[in-house]
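Repro case for the chain-ordering regression, as requested:
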Amino acid sequence: MNHLQLIIRREYLNKIRNRSFILMTFLSPIIMVLIFTVVAYLSQLNNESVNTINILDESGLFANSFKNSETINYTNLENISLNKAKLATETSEVFGLLYIPKAPVLDDFSESVILYSDESPSISMMRSIENEIENRVNVLKLEEFGIDAKQIKELRINIDAKIETFEGKKTSKLGAGLKLIFGGIAGYLLFMFIIIYGNMIMRSVIEEKTSRIIEVIISSVQPIKLLLGKILGTTLAGVTQFAVWIVIILLLNTVISSIFGIDPSAIQSQPQEILGETSNSQQIITDVLVEINNLPIYNLLVMFMFFFIGGYLLYSSLYAAIGAAVDNETDTQQFMLPILMPLILGMYVGFFTVIDNPHGIVSQVFSYIPLTSPVVMLMRIPFGVPIWQQILSLVILFATFMGTVWFASKIYRVGILMYGKKASYREIIKWLKY
Amino acid sequence: MNNLLVTNNVSKSFGSFKALNNINIEVPKGSVFGLLGPNGAGKTTLIRIINQITMPDSGSVFLDGKPLHPNDIKNIGYLPEERGLYKSMKVGEQAMYLAQLKGLSKTEAKKRLIYWFDRLGIDGWWNKKIQELSKGMAQKIQFVVTVLHQPKLLIFDEPFSGFDPINANLIKDEILRLKEEGATIIFSTHRMESVEEMCDHIALIDKSNKILDGKLIDIKRAYKSNTYKVGIAPNNPDTIQEILKEKFDSVPIYFRSINDEKQYKIKLPKASSKNDLVNYLTSLGQLSHFEEVIPSVSDIFIETIQNN
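-- result from build under test --
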């Protein structure tokens, strides 16, 4: 076995056998699923409660316009005074009292309606009550002007412009969002991986210094091989852990939803339901499928893999460089934040600039800068980027990774000769000259 | 080619600090070479350059007549002063790892480790974790790992620190045995008595410069000053001191002895013979102790450094 393989193997086995690593591997998915289950259960409970609202309608215009919904029941109070109605509502279990006074002119309703309640109502409850009143007042106003509400409804035409490329490929507006999602997922995954495993790599680089074995190791192997081995070994351990997590989460998810009937993944699906309100959800699903078919899917998957790996390796090599510069973990703080900044920047550029203009100059530049390209380029690819540009960006990315490892190994070699000297940015620049 | 290792005008600076200034040393094949010097003199830097941990700013290092090459890590075994082992790894696994890094095959490494573990009486430790071992125990493992790949050149930096006298002797015997088997050994320590016992050659480095080197015997010969320690039961105790003082450069001293005698240190001028001194002393009384003062390494060390 050559040195690199030996080091990777040691790092991997060392991580995998570590007791707290094993514990986290099995405990975190269980905790995660538990939390999601509890949240899903609680939000189910929350949705199930139905509030009753008494209505005192002195105007007599809204008698039948309030329809019971899933969360609100309306009861009409008739022929009693406001004070009595208030008293009756307060002493009962009813949520509140909606008071609609007489109004000589319809416009007065905009100010005069009052909801009496001990608890403040949720925003969604207020909105549905207001909507009911507005709808009714609108109809009444139309009648006042002598216009038939039905005619107005028929007047409305919905324009739905279709988008089509010159080659005849149909896309929909939905596509743009969908395209961003791929980049977003890549960015999010990258972020998670870096946060979880970047520190682990850093600690593993410091390990030789704290255990004082560094001189023996460094007189046996080149620092660049040592660092590369550490990055790759820890990454493999991370991938293993991640795979175990996914398997456990899927298993637990199936078990819990089949036993308790609670679906922890239901939480994530809620935003889509909101989207679904605007049009037929069946339609959306087919649209999405068509869109996915229209995406350069193989290109995306292959590039997703390369950019994800490249981005991850680049960022972990930065962590390794920090580890190389310091003697112990407490000295690492000052270097931590600047590392994550470019990644966050990449996400912002992706979500705000790329969606605006995927091939604009800013989007282009950021899809070549290695620290942001893993996110930005992945967001651009669905909009169509020539292969040579993708490959160029990848080459830059991997070259930067190797460059950073080289840089880190240079710091590493000098850093060990400087026992006790704290690594500051100025010191490191000096070290590079040795 | 009689020298295994030669450094040629090796210089190294850290920033404005000159750590080594034109160092030339020659380490003969099959010798034990003592690399001595006060703290901060530059010994460790020189050792690190030999191990290719740092590169010299100028000058070159030759191993076996050829310029030092990255592959030479196979030919060098290094036990640094700052030493440790991976704490969470098992002894056997760790030793195997380090041996393989030095280029041994898995089976060869295992075979030799079993031999050495048995030899040093630590064969029961294979599955222990390093953190369960005492410092001395861990040092034994480090020693084994250093010599396991049978390098031509062994470099020990303070090899005995942390050992009790029994284990220190054990390690000393092993080092001498390795020398018998043909290894060349560079040995850096502040314990002068082990230099005295083990080294054939020494080099003394002070303030980044080599100030003395050569065969230990030659250096001692050069540093001896024709001085003798004598013990005498004089016929006339009252006058002996004046008589001696008049005739020689002598001072009364005290050394441990079972006889009840007067003790002096007498320095002879270059030309005179010690037989004349003995004859003269016997005429003054009963001579019970006569010894030429040979400077110890410690004396030479202190004297040279102070004169520098």
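Ordering looks correct now. The two ends of chain A are 32 Å apart (CA to CA).
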